[in-house]
Each structure stands twice: as C-alpha cells, then as structure tokens.
Amino acid sequence: MNSLLRSEEMCLAQLFLQSGSAYDCISELGELGLVEFRDLNPSVIAFQRKYVNEIKKCEEMERILSYLLKEIKKADISLPEIDVNPVAPLPKHVIAIMEQLQRLEVELGEVTRNKEKLQKNLLELTEYTHMLRITRNFVQRSAEREPLQVQYEEFPFLEKETMMDYNSMQRLGAKLGFISGLIHRVKIEAFERMLWRVCKGYTILSYAEVDEYLDDPDTGEPTKSVVFLISYWGEQIGQKVKKICDCYHCHVYPYPSNNEERNDVVEGLRTRIQDLHTVLHRTEDYLKQVLIRASESVYTWVVQIKKMKAIYYILNQCSFDVTNKCLIAEVWCPVSDLPALRKALEDGSRKSGATVPSFVNRIPTSDTPPSLIRTNKFTSGFQNIVDAYGVCSYREVNPAPFTIITFPFLFAVMFGDLGHGIIMALFAFWMVFYENDRKLKNTRNEIWNTFFEGRYIILMMGLFSVYTGLIYNDCFSKSLNIFGSKWNVSAMIEAKIWKREDLRGNGILTLDPNVTGVFTGPYPFGIDPIWNLATNRLTFLNSYKMKMSVILGIIHMSFGVILSTFNHLHFRKSYNLYLVFLPELLFLLCLFGYLVFMILYKWMVFSAQDSRHAPSILIHFINMFLMQGDSIQPLYAGQSGLQIFLLLIAVLSVPVLLMGKPLYLYWLNKGHHRIGAYRGYERVRHDSDEELFLLRAHDMEEGSSHSEVSMSGEHQSEEFNFADEFLHQAIHTIEYCLGCISNTASYLRLWALSLAHAQLSEVLWAMVMRVGLKMDTSLGVLFLVPVFGLFAVLTVSILLVMEGLSAFLHALRLHWVEFQNKFYSGSGVKFVPFSFSLMPSSFDNDGLL
Known about the structure:
The chain contains 26 helices and 13 strands. It is α+β, with helices and mostly antiparallel strands.
C-alpha cells in the first residue's frame, strides 16, 4: 500500500561494467527491467557512437526478417504461438544467425523469382491461347459474310457510317496486315477511338471479351481482358498501329497466316502449358517448404534480434573510462531493487567469464528522479486514469488508491440502476474470467483493447451501480417491492383524503406524506416502491438527489484538502499546515460545510408534518452572506450569530492564505537564511541525500544560518524572490476560493445525470416494452419477442454504452478537477525501465521494426 500511496524511493547509481561483460550485464538488466538508463553522450550523434556498426547489422537482420515475414504471410502460413522467451544471443553467435538469414534470403529470392518468371510465362501462354481461339471465331464469322464487310460501330464524333471491305482494298494494291493481342477491358473504348483518329479508317478492329479473369502481371490482381484483331493496309499504317498498342500496354502476340500454322501453334501451347503447370507446382511446393522451415525459427530470431539491438542501443549511451577498458553507465533505480541490481551484475559477469566483476555505486544528485508506482492487474486501470491527468511528482501522494473507491462510487451515483449495473458487472466478470485468453488480449481493435484493459474498472462500476440501484430502488425504471411498501392506503381513506371510488377510477395518484398515520415506519433499505406510482415522484427525487450531490461533493473536496497534509508532512513543510492547509479547510467548511450541516439538520429536525413550514436552506445560505438572518424564520436558536462567526472566519482565512506563506518565507530570508530547500517538495531526491535534506529543512525552521544549500555540492540554491512567491500564492488563493464555489456547483452533475438516466430508462420502457405488454391476445407472446429484442438493443446501445460513457467522463472530470487539484500537482516524469518485456511483440512489419 505504501508503494501505491507514494512513488518508490529512487536513487541515481553508476554502473561500472567491464568491456567483456557489459553485453551480458545489460542483457540481464533487460530481462529484469530494474533500471532506467541515462544518456551520457547527448552531444554525440548516432552515427559517431561506438556500437553503430553492430546496430546496422541488427537492422540488416531485421530487414531480412521483415522480408521473410512478408513472404510467409503471402503464402498464408501460420506463425507459431510460442510463449518461450529466448535470451539475447551472444555476440559470437550473431555471425551464425546472420549467415543463416542471408542464406535463407538468397534461397527464397531465387525461388520467388523463378516462380514469378514461370507465372509470367504461363500467363503469356494462356493469353496467347485465348487470342488464337477468339480470333479464329473472327475469321469464321467474316468468311460467312458475302461479300466480306466489316462495319465499324457508330461513334458520336462521326458524321456517317464508314464501310470497308477487303476486296476493294486489295484492288487498290494495298498490302493487308494483322496485329492481334489482349488489352484491359477498361481501355478498349479509348483504344478504338485512338485507332480511328490516327489511322483515318485504314484499320478494321474486331474484339471480344475473355470469359475468365486473368492475373495482371504488374499488380497480381485478377482483371478482365479483351482479345482484339486489327486488320490494316500498308506498312505505314502498321507502324502507327504498333505504336498505339505500345502506348496502351497491349500484350501483342504473333498472328498465324493460315489454319495449319494456327493448329500447330495451339498444339505447342497446350504442351508447354502442361509442362509449366508441372514445374510451377513443384516450385511452389519447394517454396512452401522453405517458408515453413523459416517460420519455425522466425519467432526466436525476431525476439533475439530485438533484444540484441536494444542492448547495443544502451551500450551507446554509456561512456568509457580513461583506459577504455570499462564502461560507465548512470541509471535511476528503486532503492528496494538495489540488491537485485547487484545480483544481476554478478550473474552477467559470471556468464561472460570476466575476471573482474562489475559493480554499482550510488551517487548524490539534485536532479529530478522519475516516479515509479508499482501496480497489478487490478490497480493498473485506476492508475492509468490518474496518469492520464499527469504523472505524480516524486514521492507526492498518489490519488489512485482512493480513486479505486471514489471513482466507481461517483459513477454509480449518476448511473444507479440495478438492472443496468448487473449487466455491466456480468460483462466485466466475463472479461476477467477470460483475461488470459490470447485472442481477447492480442487484437487490433483499439476500442475493444480499451474496454479489456479497464475490465476491473467496469467491474467496480457495475457493482457500485447495483448498490446505488438498490438505494434508488430502480431496476430498468421499475421499483422492486422487496420489503413491502410502508405507505398505508387505509390511513388516506380514513382521513377522507381518498375515496375507494378514486382508487378504482384513477391509475395515478399524488402521494401526500403530510398525513398522520400514512407511514407505518421507515423503509428498511432505499426508497419505498410506492413512489414509482406517484405523479410527484420526480419532485421528491429531485430534492433528494440534489442535496445528496452537494453533501457528497463537499465530503470529496474536504478529503482532497486533508490529503494535502500528507505532502506537507512528508516534505517537512510544517509551516504549510498552518499557513495553507488550515485556512483552506476553514474556508471550505465554514461556508460549504455549514451548508451540509443545514441540509442534515433539516432532514433530522423537520418531519413530513412540518414540511410546509420548513424554511428554505438556499434562502438561509444567501442570507448568511447578506447578514440578514432576522428576515426569515431561523432553523435553530442562535443561528444568526453562528453564521456571522463562520463567515468572519472564512473571510479572515483568505488574507492568511494569501500573505501567510510569502511573509513567513520572506522573514526567514531576511534573517540571512538560505531557503533554497523550501521548494524541496517540488524537487525529487535520492535516499543518499535524504538525511542531509531533512537536517537542512529542520535547521531552516529553527533559524540557523546557512550560506549555501546544495544537494549534490554542485548546484547552488535558488535565490528567494518575494514577488514571485507572492504572485504564485495569489494565484493559488484566487483559484482555491473561486474553485470552492464552482467545484461545489460542479458536483450537481451527480444530481442531473442521475435524474436524466432514470427518466431516459423510464421513457424507453414506456415507448417499447409497454407496447408489447399491452397486447392480451394470443399473438401478444409472439409480438413480445421482437419487442424485447428491440428493448435489449436500445438498452445496451443507449443506456449502457452512451449513458455509461457520459457518466464515466463526468466522474473523470470530478476527480481530475474538483478532487485532485486540492493536493495533486501531477508534474512528474514516469519511470521507464530498460525492459525487454516492454518491446513490441507483434509479427507485423510495424511491430518488428
């Protein structure tokens, strides 16, 4: 609990690593994840560091692995799901891994190129076969016509039809030529227009679409192609036709001069295609074997190369001593992990066989250490909520342990419904039960990952919603009659307020509690279910939930102010208890704490019989500031004098809060005291200088004289500036005093969202479920099934998802702004240890590199 309440105590340490064992020592530290390394060569660019060549080798191996993974994925070969965590390879084994990867790349590249070449040849032969088959039909159709004529299609830009025939052109002495091939279907219209414009009608184009899809050799995607046959007259026209075919990327094939040649070519193509299918099948089998063999080791290689690259990256951040035989590293390390750090260095030195062991040495510093909050799978979600606002400063109070209770409770106040809470809790229980399922954890859906990471938050919110739903006696907008109503209807009839005819003829009646004997006693738990039938139910709940929101808000803010004392005491700033904490608490309690007192007093003193004569709390609170207590009936004797007294205390606490701390620090500075340590709680320190800091802070409060305060002996203290300190405190005073008013009003969102959720649930029931329940025919049961399905879908999508998200965001705001600003600065830096477990483990290209 101490680790969750405050960040771990950190220290700055130097690691002295022997050159021969540095790699193994860093590897051991990466497996444990104990320390965060500092870069000791910030002015040296990456290409000038010592181990840049080793990192380049790792990047080359990553490139080969990326290529292997791409080919494995293209071949639809599943990668093994292995939980084994291989250690980083030794430097002497890297050459063997590199050679194996390069051999695999060369072999895979050759096989892939051969496969692509065979596929391209097969595609060309297939296209040639389709061309011969379809163009033969062109010739047969032309032979059936007498005389032979080819008529162009009518184009919009032509003035009239143009007719050509082979006989007329032959009589003119022109030489007839043919060009045949395939073109993409989307290009055929533009291709035909271009032929007409360029060749001026000296060509005849015939085309037909291929029945099956053919693979595009450039993209590999199946496309529809068209076989065309162009007849032209003259060599000059033929050259133009060939250039147009090249521009449109047509696949042109030789056109046989007679049927005998055509049959010979078709027979030869059939034989070659069969041979290519056989060779291609064997090539694919061999390629698959190579990829399967590579996939068996690719997991180990990916992890090992990542670890090796990370180790060399850390070694580049170290500096060498004057002898170049020892590497020096600086790390932030939790004090509690120092024994484990020493043991890791010993294990690394022993594995490398070094004769001189590596060791660690703590050094004093005034630099700000990072903050480390140790969490588990339950507390990590709540800690993430706090870290989203800001990482806690070193050793200041962490709001996360209190957020575990207050966050789901405030959410449930706004979301309180028994039925909705049970559904939410069951959904969270399911995620918790299957939390180790790899399919649920390793997904690419960011929305689902957010829900899954916050499964314990959702579970707590659901359980608290069940509790508040029982308090509100609200389950899908209906009340549960668990203990029986304490409302006595007979008393209303005996008092002649209601008649029996009224009860039979009216479905909704207004409940008036101001009748003697109407209640037989207080309801055991929650709200009496009879209120669900009353027309003045909303009026009753409105007053109840509004006052409840104010009470919860004042308690929550007061708790935040009280938590600030733990920071003052821990950082030895005892004067803040009297000059900051006490004025803040008095200002809050004398004004708004008194408001809570009046609410509770009215609830306890005034009964239902006195409700019509009960004074308004709001009027009394306003008159407290106006000092007009005699204008209305007081709540109790001596109320006016007490209110004036509380108001004076609240007003006097403001100048104390504004001037107290700056004047006190000015008095210390004027007495020739260096008070650089008074800002100590804003800095972070190591255990090695904790005693020195406490001694100086104590001497400062006692009035002893120090000419210089420096935590490490290298940095001198900051000069005290009264204007800066006064300005800082003035801003804090204004923010706090005005914030007490605005923050109290902000907690009224608990009241507003609670009523909105209840009313929306009631409207959904009335507009959907009540329609199905009204049918009393035999078809009513069948009609109720789709109605209930619609009700369930709307309940989940609107009331659970949308309303739940709204309540979640409002509860988040109440914690970030209204609660945490009372004691939490959140200006720290998160501790990021060097750990192999934090590296991405995805096999995708994005996760690999």
